[in-house]
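Lab meeting minutes (informal)
Scribe: AK
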Amino acid sequence: MAGFKLIQNYLSSDSDEDCDNEKFDSKPVADSQSINNHISLTRTLIFKFHWIDSFVASMKKICSSVDPFILELNNVRVYCNEQRTRTFLGIECHYLEPSFTYLMESLNKLLAEYQLESFYEEASYHISFFWMLGDRDKELKSYVEELNNSLNQVLIKDLDKNYIKVSKLHCKIGNKIYIFTLKS
């Protein structure tokens, strides 16, 4: 299995004084996990072994022609996977530069060459920071307003945290992580 992620340990506060998570954390939540913060650029994909080297070479070529870009953080949203087997909390990210659009168009064309599905047509790029087993959409939506208030408190205190500069992509294929540096 493979997937592209922009890996960013972001908003994983060194101190909990930046936001009040007490109400959220005190609720017993079965089958939940916190996860490494990342922004997915593809669905989870299955690669044939003999595709890997050519795919990696193509990605190096694409990334070497893409300028680094900035993503802006917005609101917390609830996401559920297509199979409705996992529900996620994520912070929406909006791209501010055309280089991100070019990257996604190039990545989707490359996936099509391997007859793999592109990212969702109406993509909502986001930093996933929490997941639960099952379709827990309604349950988690009850926390969104409170989480958005906490997020906004953090972002107002440090405006630089509103933006993420992306200069590398990480791609995990099997148990190996490939790092692609964007044009410098």
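Next up, CB showed the second protein from the same session:
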Amino acid sequence: MRCDVAFDIPVPINDLFTMSKKGRKLRLFKGTRYYNGKHQRQEDGHCRVYDKKRQLMENGRQGIKGEQTRIEIVYAPKGKLTLASLVQFPPQFNSKYLCAVLTDLSKFTPKVGRLVQEIQQGELLPQDTTPYYRKKIQEQLKTQDVIDLNEVTAEQWQEAVTLPCAILSGKVSFLPVQESRSG
């Protein structure tokens, strides 16, 4: 089983900082941030971050109001999952990625703030910083608006997976309500 879990964050891509916690290398291509190699795009944890508004406009589709950045993370668990496990236990991504809306760069120490800006502008890749500074970036990002990917996933999982699986397995059925007429 494999699926892409997508999050739409209503901020410009330049305000959304993402970083792998598992050492996945960042690649930049045409404004999209990819974590892992191109040949690994079907693997668990592969991540894409891009400007969704720009993508829709480039494809001639109706634009959206306001800014929107999309994060897509591949969920491909090892081994078999029962339907009950799939429904009850949405994927956990906080252990794989850190995601934060940059709200106040003055809360970073000067060196870490400069590194964050260089990463955001594509001038520096996280893997080109030392492990010490990657750790400092993660620590200081907590001063920003951190997005709980596990929580966002759980919210979407209910509608996208839990309900359809419950219907397919016969646990829930949506039948039209019968009207009763009197007289």
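CB comment: The first strand starts at residue 3 and ends at 9.
No objections, moving on.
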